Amino acid sequence: MQDVKFYLENEAVTVEIGQKLAKVARPPLTLYLTGDLGAGKTTLSRGLIQALGHQGAVKSPTYTLVEPYELPGVEVYHFDLYRLSDPEELEFMGIRDYFSENSLCIVEWPDRGEGLLPPADLHLHLAYSGNGRELNVHAGSAAGQAVIEHLSQ
Ligand code: ADP
Ligand code: MG
C-alpha cells in the first residue's frame, strides 16, 4: 500500500481534505492524526466532523480526552490524548467500547495511548512546510486503502 502526499497551502485546504474524507469515510473506521502542536490536526477534524453534519464548533477535547458527536448515520468520537498522563485513564473510560461497528474514531496524539488503541485504518500525518502543511496519508487496512483511492481521485 502506497502512501499519498498532499500539499495544503492554507487552512481552507486543510478543511477541504476533511470534507473530502467525509464523503468516503464510513464506519467502522479509525483515523490517527499525528503532527506537532498547531500542525492542523484539529482543523482537519473540524472539516470532517462538520461535513458529516455537525453544526457548531469543533474543539480539541484536550481536557476531556474525547468529544462525542451523534451525527446522521454515524457516531463520531474525537479523541485528543495530548494531556493523557496515565494510560490507565483510557482503561477507566472504557476506551475499547468507543471503537465499534458504528463509529468513526478520530484520534489526535495516538502515540500517547500506544498499546491501548486499535490500529489505524488511516494514519494522517501533518507537518509544517513553508507557509502551509504537508499531509502524508498512510493506509493501515483495506478500508483505509479504499478511502485513499477516493481521496486521490
Ligand atoms: P493541532 O490540532 O495539530 O494542534 P490546530 O488545527 O489546532 O492544530 O491548529 C492549526 C493551526 O494552523 C491553526 O491556526 C490553523 O489556522 C493553521 N492551519 C491549518 N492548516 C493550515 C495550512 N494548510 N496552512 C497554514 N496554516 C494552517
Ligand atoms: Mg488539536
TrEMBL record:
Methyltransferase among keywords: no
InterPro entries in the cross-refs: P-loop_NTPase, T6A_TsaE
Keywords, in A-Z order: ATP-binding, Cytoplasm, Magnesium, Metal-binding, Nucleotide-binding, tRNA processing
Compartments where found: Cytoplasm
Chain segments annotated as coiled-coil in the UniProt record: none
Keyword ATP-binding part of the UniProt annotation: yes
Primary localization: cytoplasm
One Pfam family cited in the UniProt record for this chain: TsaE
Recorded family membership: Belongs to the TsaE family.
NCBIfam families xrefs: T6A_YjeE
Designated name of the protein: tRNA threonylcarbamoyladenosine biosynthesis protein TsaE
The organism's taxonomic lineage, starting at the top: Bacteria, Pseudomonadati, Pseudomonadota, Gammaproteobacteria, Alteromonadales
Gene field: tsaE
